[in-house]
Amino acid sequence: MTFQPDTKLPARISASPNHDERRAPIDMILLHYTGMATADAALARLRDPGPRVSCHYFIHEDGTIHQMVPEARRAWHAGESSWQGVTDINSHSIGVEIVNPGHDGGYPEFPSVQVDAVIALCRDVMARQKIPSARVLGHSDVAPSRKQDPGEKFPWDRLSKAGIGIWVEPSKIVPGPELDPGDRSDIIRTLQSSLRELGYGIEVNGQFDAVTKDVVAAFQRHFRPARVDGIADHSTVETLKRLLVARELVA
């Protein structure tokens, strides 16, 4: 398959056969890391019809961008996922794979030039597709029990300064009461309700169960990256409260 790029930013087309028809309008950008040893290995996998995975854009460490699937088509990158009650994230999103071997491969820092390219691409897509800043998310946000990417080293604060995503300075980590796995209380119910209000797929049941721990960890990876442990401490809870306020201000 050959196609014309949707933007001038890609240096080349590396077409993937793995896509189908969209079932909803585009209203989200989903960021991933490749999680493979090399960029070439990741590109090959995303173009292989066997694994049935793909993305719209692929960004190398040096900032070079490839387009793999036309934006009008539904790439296969999110898997089983949800956000704000929507479960077909692939239909709603533009998928961006960022070359990084990930947590299982040493998880290096994202090079500045690569982040520059992510910012340029997100701003371009957001402007053309009218995507709200709060709808730029990480894979771990929509699949917290399965995924960790792009992870706690990804500079969401830097993206926010460029008008991408939402961000507040995380509350300081201090000793104090915390909510732990196994706990049950109305305070946990309130925490779950707030995480669900932000968009995470979580049941409001008042139990700090395994899913709640996964969602808290995903929240920390994105919004309180200094410590990712799945424990709802004062810093996590206060950051969540202020983030909900910030989201309303940019809505």
Structure characterization notes:
This protein is an alpha/beta fold and 251 residues long. It folds into two domains: 150 residues, Lysozyme-like, CATH 3.40.80; 73 residues, PGBD-like superfamily/PGBD (Muramoyl-pentapeptide Carboxypeptidase, domain 1, Orthogonal Bundle). 34% of the residues lie in helices and 13% in strands. It has eight helices and ten strands. The chain has a six-stranded mixed β-sheet. The radius of gyration is 18 Å and the shape is globular. The model has no long low-confidence stretch (mean pLDDT 96).
CATH topology category name of the largest domain? Lysozyme-like
The biggest sheet amounts to:
6 strands, mixed
CATH H level, superfamily name of the largest domain:
Peptidoglycan recognition protein-like
Our Rg estimate from Cα atoms comes to 18 Å
Q: What is the SS-derived class?
A: alpha/beta
The percent range for helix content is 25-40%
Helix and strand run: EEEHEEEHEHEHHEHHEH
For the record, what CATH class of the largest domain applies? Alpha Beta
Give the integer mean of the pLDDT values.
96
Query: Strand share of the residues?
Result: 5-15%
Features:
alpha/beta, Muramoyl-pentapeptide Carboxypeptidase, domain 1, 2 domains, six-stranded mixed sheet, 8 helices, 10 strands, about 35% helix, about 15% strand, globular
Helix-strand blueprint:
Layout: E1 12-13, E2 19-21, E3 28-33, H1 39-47, E4 57-59, E5 65-67, E6 73-75, H2 89-92, E7 93-98, H3 112-129, E8 136-138, H4 139-142, H5 156-161, E9 178-179, H6 186-198, H7 210-223, E10 232-233, H8 234-250
